[in-house]
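Re: [ENG-882] Designed sequences occasionally contain unexpected residues at chain ends

Forwarding the minimal case from QA. Structure tokens:
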């Protein structure tokens, strides 16, 4: 299976969270890896309380023909330390992948498949500073595949990826040391020939009952490739929709899907010379981000700012009464204005007088206004249906400014903080 159509999005998943702005090893947010989809060695993971993940499990549906065959690719990063034995040194990532190709669906139905794999120490790559060769730990895993017959053509595929790397003194092993034996950002690419995968997000009605039985742990399968194509799935540790795409305006990965390219590019450009130098020295990929950002074309920010997608022509029957360009959102639209509010059984309206009894007494103004008589200028209600009385003090020398709704001469109180003056007069007469 040629996974070329899925490689870009799979690479984005692989490096999501690899290194975060400000792209320096000394940054607090880079002091501890937080990549999605980390599978620790099983012995270490089971010694933790609570237990750490060492296995990802995915289940999905596919319709098959008589000669259906499966291709699978496991992918993850292995971390390696390149500055002596310093446990706080920056750990660079080596891409690891292994293909399991041309697996017969009918044979797996009869007998589940278990495939062991090892990445050895002599698989080292020259990615260290100044080109020195780095020697990663030997790590091992297992891929377990099962297929269940549900209907005439419908099958349920179950796949487990397990980190089986042996570690000494697992209970005493530190997290930072266990990360050197972990599968980081682990995910799977699945491909089928003479068959089609079924979306678990937009499942056809005839397959919905079967889809409800699919369980996924640590990853979730989505369709990838060209829209409408159903021969590939990406089992991703990051929540995605079917047929995810890399934005065409993006010129490269910033490793932080929660931020926008525009914002990150602007932030990188504002780093000091000293910060940029540390960024260069931290990681080859961080250095490339800096070089790419400093050489961005002049129109880059305009291209990524306010991009609109999915425009379509609107017929005359669909045209709104108002032009969307001239439309302003009114959160109170459709709500009738309040003309009165009941306080102590008295219906108060604009023009009535009340005595102020501030309850919160949050500042000197509340204390200064306590017991004052004021005129209700308006009764207002906010978007959450809270009622406020806008009042103007009777003895305010600038009272006319309050009636003109000028700040400093108009105050707001809830109905619980006022007392109708008419009620007080009736009590005095009694």
């Amino acid at each position: 299976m040629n996974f070329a159509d899925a490689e870009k999005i799979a690479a984005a998943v692989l490096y999501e969270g690899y290194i975060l702005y400000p792209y320096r090893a000394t940054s607090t947010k880079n002091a501890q890896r937080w990549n999605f989809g980390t599978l620790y060695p099983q012995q270490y993971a089971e010694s933790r309380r609570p237990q750490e993940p060492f296995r990802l499990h995915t289940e999905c549906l596919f319709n098959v023909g008589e000669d259906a065959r499966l291709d699978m690719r496991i992918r993850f990063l292995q971390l390696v330390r390149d500055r002596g034995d310093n446990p706080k040194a920056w750990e660079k990532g080596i891409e690891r992948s292994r293909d399991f190709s041309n697996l017969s669906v009918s044979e797996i139905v009869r007998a589940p498949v278990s495939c062991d794999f090892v990445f050895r120490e002599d698989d080292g790559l020259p990615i260290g500073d100044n080109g020195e060769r780095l020697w990663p730990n030997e790590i091992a895993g297992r891929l377990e595949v099962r297929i269940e017959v549900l209907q005439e053509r419908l099958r349920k595929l179950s796949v487990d990826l397990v980190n089986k790397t042996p570690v000494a003194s697992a209970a005493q092993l530190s997290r930072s040391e266990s990360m050197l034996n972990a599968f980081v950002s682990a995910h799977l690419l699945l491909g089928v020939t003479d068959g089609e995968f079924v979306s678990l997000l937009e499942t056809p009605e005839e397959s919905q009952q079967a889809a409800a039985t699919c369980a996924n742990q640590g990853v979730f399968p989505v369709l990838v490739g060209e829209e409408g194509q159903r021969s590939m799935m990406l089992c991703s540790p990051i929540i995605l929709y079917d047929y995810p795409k890399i934005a065409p305006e993006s010129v490269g990965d910033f490793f932080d899907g929660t931020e926008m390219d525009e914002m990150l590019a602007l932030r990188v450009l504002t780093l000091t010379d000293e910060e940029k130098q540390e960024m260069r020295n931290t990681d080859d990929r961080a250095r490339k981000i800096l070089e790419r950002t400093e050489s961005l074309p002049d129109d880059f920010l305009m291209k990524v700012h306010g991009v609109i997608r999915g425009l379509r022509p609107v017929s005359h029957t669909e045209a709104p009464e108002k032009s969307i360009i001239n439309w302003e959102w009114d959160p109170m639209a459709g709500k009738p204005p309040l003309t009165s509010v009941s306080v102590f059984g008295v219906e108060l309206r604009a023009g009535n007088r009340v005595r102020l009894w501030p309850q919160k007494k949050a500042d000197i103004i509340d204390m200064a206004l306590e017991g004052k008589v004021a005129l209700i200028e308006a009764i207002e209600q906010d978007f959450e249906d809270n009622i406020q009385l806008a009042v103007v003090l009777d003895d305010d020398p600038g009272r006319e400014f309050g009636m003109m709704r000028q700040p400093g001469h108009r105050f707001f109180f809830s109905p619980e903080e006022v007392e109708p003056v008419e009620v007080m007069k009736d009590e005095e007469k009694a």
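QA comment: On inspection the terminal residues look reasonable. Residues 4-251 form one domain. Proposing we downgrade this to a documentation issue.
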